[in-house]
């Protein structure tokens, strides 16, 4: 088969109101132009939690070796799927090898043509719920390009390729191994149609390559791998076999699912701890009683001055005009961002003032700082962050509640370049922005996403307007004790209520309702008040 169709893709939900995911786009247009026809975007349900209440992953991605795309279509409403093709992992060729490749004198069906260690490394990262960057291969140039394709968020990984069962390191990563038997005449007919139509090759060239390389490689390397398969499917379009495989995958995903949002919402404090007092406007100190944060010094609340209380009074008032709400939100966001900057590393710096006097000050001691906003309630904090850090790159995460279970679902991510490359992410400090921490379900998922990319836990600074004292913050601080939380106020707790499902049932009688928890007294739907 050699240089077969397909490059790895991220299957995502179709949400026309939001940008396409970074995972869907190769960095740089060249790879997209070369391989755009090979991209297939299928509907997906989003990615449910893949971690437990301790913050650690409890299930890896489910990996199917040598799969058919029909399997994905049979799965229906499913979490995020990545289709990973061996054809992205052809080795980089020398100029001499490129010349031979254009003359059909290179055996692309031999196992040595594939960079198996890199294939296994990328698959291992995805299986462990980490991000990865896979190579992009140009079929027209017979060369691996300098660009890479960023992928993250796989709940199901389907690998494609005739040699996907050949390498022991790859086989060790599969949860389900499938070998698809196909008639040799059919394989030759497909190759002729594809190479002539899509790759501009002649019939004579295709036949010569098939007889010289493809058929011997299939007999010597591909066919013997059938003994490693859990399932052997006769025929490439075997609907019965595909349905059985899809049913098995659904059952595996159900067994791996985790639900603990209700626990987080009801994980209220058990004891009272008086944290260090905050100065009042008169200079005196007043104690701030915050429960259940025993031994956790990483919750930082702004000093409760009269000015700050005045701002919150305006923001909590439902009669406040939209223009006033935006003005004071931006002002409060600036205060919070300035406070958050205190948790970045600094080093001494000496400058000479306009009066030719030396001044010994400080400067940032890190090269990489960025923000990540949890859409859309984190958006109102972005302007404040940009006011205190000029040109700071800000990415975004779209995390919404599942209409049935209420559990968070990761639907979209667009992260700065310093987070998409793991060797940079480990050096990066991240301001994570969200309007409030109630059940902390979204905060939990967002922090886990950053950790999956290699960000250090003590490099995450969560900036928020409100924290619910009796909500998920108690679970959050136990799971991620080194994450710093900077907030403006601590509200009493959460109120359980019911919300009608509007995405599917708005305007319809009998629309299902789901349980939600709202912060009280709170500030309402901050994102709606800011943007609408």
From TrEMBL:
Residues 70-234 form the Phosphoribulokinase/uridine kinase domain. One of its GO terms (biological process) is UMP salvage. Its cofactor is Mg(2+). Residues 303-497 form the Phosphoribosyltransferase domain. CDD domains: PRTases_typeI, UMPK. InterPro entries: P-loop_NTPase, PRK/URK, PRTase-like, PRTase_dom, Uridine_kinase-like. It holds the Pfam family UPRTase. Keywords: Allosteric enzyme, Glycosyltransferase, GTP-binding, Kinase, Nucleotide-binding, Transferase. GO terms for molecular function: ATP binding; glycosyltransferase activity; GTP binding; kinase activity. Gene3D superfamilies: 3.40.50.2020, P-loop containing nucleotide triphosphate hydrolases (3.40.50.300). Pathway: Pyrimidine metabolism; UMP biosynthesis via salvage pathway; UMP from uracil: step 1/1; Pyrimidine metabolism; UMP biosynthesis via salvage pathway; UMP from uridine: step 1/1. Belongs to the UPRTase family. This is Uridine kinase.
């Amino acid at each position: 088969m050699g240089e077969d169709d397909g490059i790895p893709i991220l299957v995502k939900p179709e949400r026309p109101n939001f940008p396409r995911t970074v995972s869907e786009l190769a960095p740089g247009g060249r790879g997209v132009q070369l391989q755009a026809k090979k991209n297939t975007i299928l509907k997906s349900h989003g990615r449910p939690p893949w971690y437990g209440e301790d913050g650690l992953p409890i299930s890896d991605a489910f990996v199917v070796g040598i799969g058919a795309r029909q399997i994905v279509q049979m799965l229906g409403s499913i979490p995020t799927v990545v289709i990973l093709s061996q054809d992205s992992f052809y080795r980089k060729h020398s100029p001499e090898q490129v010349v031979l490749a254009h003359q059909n004198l290179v055996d692309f069906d031999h196992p040595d043509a594939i960079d198996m260690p890199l294939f296994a490394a990328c698959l291992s990262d995805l299986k462990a719920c980490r991000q990865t960057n896979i190579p992009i291969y140009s079929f027209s140039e017979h060369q691996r390009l300098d660009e890479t394709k960023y992928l993250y968020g796989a709940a199901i990984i389907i690998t494609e390729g005739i040699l996907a069962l050949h390498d022991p390191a790859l086989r060790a990563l599969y949860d389900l191994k499938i070998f698809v038997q196909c008639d040799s005449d059919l394989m030759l007919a497909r190759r002729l149609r594809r190479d002539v139509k899509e790759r501009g090759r002649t019939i004579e060239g295709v036949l010569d390559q098939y007889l010289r390389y493809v058929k011997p490689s299939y007999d010597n390397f591909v066919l013997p791998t059938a003994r490693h398969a859990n399932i052997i499917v006769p025929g490439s379009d075997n609907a019965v076999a595909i349905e059985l495989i899809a049913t098995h995958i659904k059952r595996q995903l159900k067994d791996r699912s985790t639900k603990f949002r209700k626990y987080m919402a009801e994980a209220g404090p058990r004891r009272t701890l008086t944290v260090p007092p905050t100065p009042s406007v008169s200079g005196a100190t007043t104690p701030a009683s915050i429960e259940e944060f025993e031994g956790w010094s990483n919750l930082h609340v702004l000093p409760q001055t009269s000015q700050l209380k005045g701002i919150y009074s305006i923001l909590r008032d439902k009669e406040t005009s939209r223009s006033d709400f935006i003005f004071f939100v931006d002002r409060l966001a600036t205060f919070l961002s300035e406070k958050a900057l205190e948790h970045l590393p600094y080093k001494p710096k000496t400058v000479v003032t306009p009066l030719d006097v030396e001044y010994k000050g400080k400067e940032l001691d890190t090269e990489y700082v960025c923000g990540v906003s949890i859409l859309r309630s984190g958006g109102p904090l972005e302007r404040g962050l940009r006011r205190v850090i000029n040109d700071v790159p800000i990415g975004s995460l779209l995390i919404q509640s599942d209409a049935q279970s209420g559990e968070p679902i990761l639907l979209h991510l667009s992260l700065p370049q310093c987070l998409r490359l793991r060797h940079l992410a480990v050096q990066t400090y991240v301001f994570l922005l969200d309007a409030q921490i109630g059940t902390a379900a979204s905060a939990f998922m967002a922090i886990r996403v950053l950790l999956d990319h290699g960000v250090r836990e003590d490099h995450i600074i969560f900036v928020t307007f409100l924290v619910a004292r009796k909500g998920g913050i108690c679970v959050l601080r136990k799971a991620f004790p080194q994450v710093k939380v900077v907030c403006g106020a601590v509200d009493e707790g959460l109120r359980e209520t019911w919300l009608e499902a509007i995405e599917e049932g708005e305007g319809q009688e009998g629309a299902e309702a789901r349980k939600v928890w709202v912060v009280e007294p709170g500030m309402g739907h901050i994102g709606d008040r800011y943007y609408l």
